[in-house]
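Sample intake sheet
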Amino acid sequence: DGLIWFATESDGLFSYDEKGIINYDSKDGLTGVDISTIFEASNGDIWFGTWDRGGAIKYDGNNFLTTSVEDGLIGNGIVSSFSQDSSSHILIGTGGPTSGIQIYDDSSQQGKFLDTYTPRLMGSTFWGVGVNSILGVPNGIFWMGTWEDGLIKFENGFFRRYTRNSHGLIDDRV
């Protein structure tokens, strides 16, 4: 639709086009105004993550629709990253003590979580601070950059961690 989106730490979202700048906040339907990430899905929907526990917010071109903890979102509603897999499902990276990655199918009006992956659920003891970035690649493999625990590859139900000390990363914040 030609909009350029800007995230802020406390004032919600701004969009810009040739008509001018518009500010969106709680009065426009945002459940959080501390926006951490912006992602455009292949169908044109724009997804916003929040630091202030506002959840995952989707803009469908007309409305802001929220997926929250009440809907099954992990990470205390802190959303730090998005990606999309080869099936067009939305990958949601979360922060906080229950951080992890969730696969979300929003092809229906309601939307639903298909899978949830956290280190605790998968029997792992590392990576507890949050997913900073996600890359979904074919065959169900996910690469996740974390806030302090290096780079994590999820493949065939297992996590593998790459760190500065063990694998030569320049830093464990990826």
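Comment: The longest strand covers residues 131-137. The chain has a mean pLDDT of 87.
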